[in-house]
Amino acid sequence: MELTLAEFAWLAQKRLDPPVWDFIEGGAGEERTLAANTAAFDRICLRPSVLRGADSPDPTVKILGRTWDAPLAVAPVAYHTIAHPEGELATVRGTAAAAGVPVVISTFAGRTFEELAQAADIPLWLQVYCMRDRSITRGLVERAENAGFEALVLTVDAPHLGRRLRDLRNGFRLPPGILPANLAGDGFAEPAAHSRTGFDPGLDWSVVDWLRSVSALPILVKGILTGADAIRATEAGVDGIVVSNHGGRQLDGVPGTLDVLPEIAAAVGGRVPVLLDGGVRRGRDVLAALALGADAALIGRPVLHGLAAGGEEGVKGVFTVLLDELTDAMALAGLKTVTDIGPALVGPAPHPLRHGGGAFPTVPVGPAVPTGGTGRGTEADRPSATVPDGDRPHRTDLHLSDLHASVADPVMGTMNFLNEVTLRYPRAVSFAPGRPYAGFFETEQIFGYIRRYLDHLAEQGNSPEQVRETLFQYGPSAGLIRGLIAESLRADEGIDVPPESIVVTVGCQEAMFLALRALMAGPQDVLLVSSPCYVGITGAARLLDIAVTAVDEDGTGLSCAALEAAVLAERARGRRPRAVYVVPDHSNPSGVTMPLETRRALLELAARLDLLVLEDSPYRQVSPGPQVTALKALDRDRRVIHLGSYAKTVFPGARIGFVVADQPVREPDGGTTLLADHLATIKSMVTVNTSPLSQAAVAGALLESGGRLSRLNEETAAYYGEAMRFTLECLAREFPAGHRERLGVSWNEPGGGFFLTLQVPFRADNDALARCAKEFEVIWTPMSYFYPQGGGHHTIRLSTSYLTHADIEKGISRLARFIASQAAPAA
Ligand SMILES: Cc1cc2nc3c(=O)[nH]c(=O)nc-3n(C[C@H](O)[C@H](O)[C@H](O)COP(=O)(O)O)c2cc1C
User: Fold this and answer.
1) Domain span at 174
2) Annotation says 404 is catalytic
3) Which of 44, 74, 645, 792 could form a disulfide with 288 if both were Cys (CB 3.0 to 4.6 A apart)?
4) Residues 391-403, buried b or exposed e (16+ Cβ, 10 A)?
């Protein structure tokens, strides 16, 4: 009797012809994604809860109005008849014999819908590939609906089938007699070639409307891998989402599905069910998927393994094993029902857990190695199983899928893209970087500042040796100049905190890292961000595997009502919203400033919801005129962690930032420390300490201005204010009222800071940016970069800070011509 799904796979491999086995098992390209699917589950560590009286757990779930015996379903897989002559008939009967869960029947099923509908009383869903000839798709849908199918699963990741190297090497053709039972015509023997002529490659989101126009059944989309697409799908009105990379058979290099699940679940926010497939091979994998936000998991290849191993009985065996493993894991983890499963159940494994010999047979990729390798072991075991020691290559080839997912995160890629565009078109006027204007910098200033600080140390009674030590040695992790920073905060900002509550950091970016690392204790903790959002904080969260939930700004910035709704929704999902990140003054990227009443309301809300506020405010002291009181200055009960930077007020090359963390921390021994103490401890493992030379330079600037950065920056702030005013003037000149409305152009009018945002009548993506840079020699930033969960597709960010008036005038006039050229076809 088989005790694991791996044993069914082993039996199947023995029974199937090697090219058929390869057709089933293979993935596209180098099979990185195929490996990533299972690797993601292997990295998971479960965190059980004991003494919960959960010995007879109930695995039932309710999805789309139907109760399923378990959070499981059969993924759509073409031609079950290739594994067993009874094909889908045996699958439906075998599944029903083990559990009342749905079977998704492929467009390319080997048995007819009508006979399957008669076979058993479990929900059947139809997987839809949308064909070039829509009448074929419509016919399939109508037949399935008439037969009693209950839902449609539209596959959206396959304009054509992926490059599956095993099939190409094997010259794979479907064996004689293997045909789609519900499609007429021919040319099916080579699935990849057929997909190129049969599938509609030009689909867009309107296909969902079309499908809805031909059927009343609920529609799920299968093949979603990003939060942004999940949002588009919900906006298109789908009834469910299947997180899937087609079992690694389409675009190789996309992440494992479990890795992207939290982002998608957060984006969907419980509005529709989220299902997942790819690499689910054990009951505990189902638990992991549910813990990270799925409502159920779909099983692909193992169903074919069961079929090949024993037809109907084999499929029943696969689902029996999965169900046994699932209920066993639930009982041992202290979970009485599926609703008890939440993010607290999972953590990353300290090192990848090895399957104790229960892994799938692995098939090495590459022409030199025979297909159908029989090594039974994990990815880590594979080299020794297939390559003799003496032949082992000396080079260490790392796989992207083995690196942290942030390495391949599209956000990191977009920033590179922006840098590249700027370098590739050096003659272009660039409104992209948020840099300070260089006209006020003088090299000698730096020496003057450092001298000033050293004199100050001497005046304080330090001996020449002590002064020397201060500059040459490592220094305290928390920083040398905390006292001066505290004085300056008091003088300039009305923020009254003791020096001990401050940690000096390497730029504000390190301050964000330290605060996030210390506050976010486990996978259940969520960071809320006002969206659009500065990428530094979302990037830091990504690197630290911290879940982010976006709270959309309205025209006036963060809305407290939206924040409260987001907090309550997260709590309902079993997560702990820990802190909200805001840039209240002249925000990067939107340019919006939070009014005083909103600041008060935010602090009141944070107290009521027991939430911390991360305040990041680098543009206050470089903006003209009086500023709205800082959140930290209004903070009476230490809710606000203030993140500071001297990049704009002194100079960015110093890389000096700081964090004010005056929150008391209760220690196990009854004593109390400050959060800042703990941030300094973590810092000692990151950058050890902030460069004393850089601290000296900033301290000198603080001393020279009597702690008043506002005074130091009077001229600079006036300059930036003037640059912003002039940019707005140029925009108004280029887009006079009337013309502006006709084109669909509008912008906001920030009173300070470096950024403003412009609504444009075209999709402001990388392609548009590259065209604009090349043909019109002007560069801007797509606002979509700043929406962690999608949005901003018709908005651009303009940075006005470091350009001269001549550049601004030239740049805005070029931009106006580009916008007109983009709007022209629609006009
Ligand atoms: C042999 C085979 C055929 C497949 N045929 C289809 C199909 O017709 N339609 C579809 O949407 N997905 C198809 N898939 C993808 C599966 O629905 C599913 O996404 C994938 O198999 C899940 O990964 P797993 O095999 O690791 O469980 C197929 C997968 C395999 C292995």
Assistant:
1) 5-338
2) no
3) 44
4) eeeeeeeeeebee
